[in-house]
Amino acid sequence: MTSSREDGESDAESDAESDAESDAESDAESDYENDYENDCGLGGCLPGKPAVGIMKKSPQLQKLEETMRGSALAARGFLGNDRRSLPEIIETDLHALARLGYTKEHLASRMQELTDLGRQGLGTAVRVEEHVEVTVDEHRGQIVCPWPHAGRFAKTVTTVRRLDTGEEMRWAELSIHLVAVHGFFQGRGSPFRLDPQRLVRVLF
Ligand SMILES: [Zn+2]
After folding, report:
1. How far apart are CA 65 and CA 5, in angstroms?
2. Which tens digit of pLDDT belongs to each residue from 97-117?
3. What pLDDT band is residue 137 in, cutting at 50, 70 and 90?
4. Residue 151: its pLDDT value, please?
5. From ligand 1's centre to the CA of 197, what distance in Å?
6. Rounded distance between C-alpha atoms, residue 197 and residue 98, angstroms
7. Whole-number Å distance between alpha carbons of 97 and 111
């Protein structure tokens, strides 16, 4: 049975990988507390600077990505099963958005507007426009932005449904911030992934 060798090898590989991940976790967490300065490491956060094309090779983003891949934050699903680098994820989505003729700020302010309108329903669906229905569920507690700055967000979940197409999008308050400030729509396979194309289709 020489063919079993391959299986043995891949088992060993994944074991090694998970060990490495749990080792990295505590390091990443202490870095998160100590090393980051008060900016997000993304040129895109700074007013007046273009967000696209200048975020490659940022050591801060690389650290942030390592933190996100650590199990503590991965549990919240920021990156999903996306194996692309964090700068690549951000840049690809911002390019897609630009091709559609929207900015992240424009998108985020529309998301915020719908969340604010939906809040009036106190957990029940509110028809806020002819073709748009919004439900906002408030959850106890707060969640922090994974970027290194003071940012806490209510665990509010907004569900927007288009009555004309039946299409739905869902986001947390943190997601609005991640889009507006960091241009981060979360990774593929994340439960809170906001595909820019779908988002534009549902919101406008
Ligand atoms: Zn942030």
Report:
1. 34
2. 999 999 999 999 999 999 999
3. very high
4. 85
5. 22
6. 10
7. 15
Q: Six-digit token pair at 71?
A: 């199990």
Instruction: Count other C-beta atoms under 10 Å from residue 108's C-beta.
Output: 19
Sequence-ordered list of residues with C-beta below 8 angstroms from that of 157, at least 6 positions apart, any chain: 136, 137, 139, 170, 171, 172
Ligand 1 mean position to 148 CA, how many Å?
Answer: 7
What is the 8-class DSSP label of residue 191? T
Backbone angles phi, psi at 138, to 5 degrees: -90, 135
Cα 30 to ligand 1 centroid, rounded to whole Å: 18
Indicate the residue type of 122.
L
Cα(134)–Cα(195) distance, rounded to whole angstroms? Answer: 18
Q: Give residue 66's pLDDT.
A: 82
Q: Confirm if 160 and 150 have CB atoms less than 8 A apart.
A: no
d(CA 41, CA 29) in angstroms, rounded, equals 17
Could you count the other beta carbons within 10 Å of the beta carbon of residue 124? 10
Give the model's pLDDT for residue 87: 95
Q: Which two tokens stand for residue 127?
A: 């028809």
3-state class of 69 per DSSP? helix
Output the CA 12–ligand 1 centroid distance in Å.
37
